[in-house]
Amino acid sequence: MPDSTITLPADLRRDLAVATIQTTIVDVPTVRRHKLSQTSVTAQSYVIVELRLANGVTGIGEAATLGGPRWSEESVEGIKATIDTYLAPALIGEHADRFAAAGARMDAAAKRNNAAKAALETALFDAVGRTLGLPVAALLGGVVRNRFPVLWTLASGDVAQEIEEAEAKLAARLHDTFKVKIGALTPQADLARLRRLAAALEGRANLIVDANQAWDETTAVRCLPTLADLGIRLVEQPLPAWNVPGMARLRARSAVPLMADECVFSPQEMLSVAQAAAADVVSLKLVKHGGLMNLQRVASVAEAAGIGLYGGCLLESSVGAAAHLHAFAGLRDLGWGCEHFGPQILTDDLVTEKLRFADFHVHLPDGPGIGVTLDRDKLRRYART
Ligand code: MUC
Ligand code: MG
């Protein structure tokens, strides 16, 4: 493998060798039950990666899951085993700044396993950024924005509680856009719930919905006009991930824009969705795309096809959220904002200084690497024994 085109002093090059990689499963309780169509959680589970370089600098990364292998095929138990057994050995001794080569080595060591790869790649970028005194966003191409409109997700399924929760977020000027999780209830019950939410928040908040693949095409055809009447701004993944042709047919008759989530993991899937004209917007997530650089690739395909960008999440802690913000910071047009409210839904966080949420925005943390520091006491407290 040729050396990088930038010639680094020999000491620095040696110092950037990956020395050790450690993984820890943590379970952090949520402030309330979070109910999606396919799963429901009262604690968020993550794998935290600590990657130490020969120079003694440690980079961190996080792989988020949602209720075991139900949102996607990865679980924290599987992620830890895959990293420890296959991916970490592919990186030990390699130079941390060769990000693209690291990606190729990980792809050769394991198919997919995108959340696991993303956590490792984040830790590589964090370690190199900390060594050089540069934010990860700078390593990725530089900052276009350092704060992001951020929504909150209503997902208890109890509409009275959801209205109260939205009112509290509005009053605190934290969130004025809400994503409502639908699909756990019947379509009729969800439409009734949305009617009450839309009436209660009219003129003061925007609503989007996420069905997490719960509807079939006929249900979606029946429900979309009501969603349009209620002023819903965006409908996320109404159909199963495999049904891209169905999404294209829906989109052709829908007055509300459609967002692709579970149907777009790879840049190639983004291209297929674009070619099928099956989405107006795509939700970008590290756990889906397999890392910061692949997130940029998916965003590039979407941009080339005129598909809007949205900063998606999987309820990451401040570690995973910060990594996403560094990737989002360099996108030219993040027209649909982001949803990195994850740190706020946890009863506690894993970092020494939490991300800043103010005036309906979340802020890119300052400082080298991903800009947040792991709180090792918290890591120990929430580590699964
Ligand atoms: C998803 O499907 O979008 C993101 C926010 C939330 O409440 O659930 C996740 C996953
Ligand atoms: Mg979604």
Topology record:
Elements (H helix, E strand, L loop, with lengths): L9 H6 L2 E18 L4 E14 L4 E7 L11 H16 L7 H11 L4 H19 L3 H4 L7 E3 L2 E3 L4 H13 L5 E5 L5 H15 L4 E5 L6 H13 L5 E2 L7 H10 L4 E3 L6 H9 L5 E4 L1 H4 L2 H13 L3 E4 L6 H12 L12 H4 L11 E2 L2 E3 L12 H7 L3
Parallel strand pairs: 5-6, 6-7, 7-8, 8-9, 9-10, 10-11
Antiparallel strand pairs: 1-2, 2-3, 4-13, 12-13
Bound molecules: [(2S)-5-oxo-2,5-dihydrofuran-2-yl]acetic acid (MUC) and magnesium ion (MG).
The site of [(2S)-5-oxo-2,5-dihydrofuran-2-yl]acetic acid has 12 residues, from loops.
Write a compact overview of the structure shown.
The protein is of the alpha/beta class and about 375 residues long. The protein has helices spanning about 10-15, 75-90, 100-110, 115-130, 135-140, 160-170, 185-200, 215-230, 245-255, 265-275, 285-290, 290-305, 320-330, 340-345, 375-380, and strands at about 20-35, 40-55, 60-65, 145-150, 150-155, 175-180, 205-210, 235, 260, 280-285, 310, 355-360, 360-365. The strands form 3 sheets. The protein has a 7-stranded parallel sheet. Strands 1-2-3 form a 3-stranded antiparallel sheet.
Please, could you describe this protein's structure?
- This protein has 385 residues and is of the alpha/beta class.
- The protein has 2 domains: 10-138, Enolase-like, domain 1, CATH 3.30.390; 141-369, TIM Barrel, CATH 3.20.20.
- The protein has helices spanning 10-15, 76-91, 99-109, 114-132, 136-139, 159-171, 187-201, 217-229, 244-253, 267-275, 286-289, 292-304, 318-329, 342-345, 376-382, and strands at 18-35, 40-53, 58-64, 147-149, 152-154, 177-181, 206-210, 235-236, 258-260, 281-284, 308-311, 357-358, 361-363.
- The strands form 3 sheets. It has a 7-stranded parallel beta sheet. A 3-stranded antiparallel beta sheet has the order 1-2-3.
- Helix 10 packs parallel to helix 12 (292-304) and helix 12 (292-304) packs across helix 13 (318-329).
- The longest helix has 19 residues, at 114-132.
- The mean pLDDT is 97.
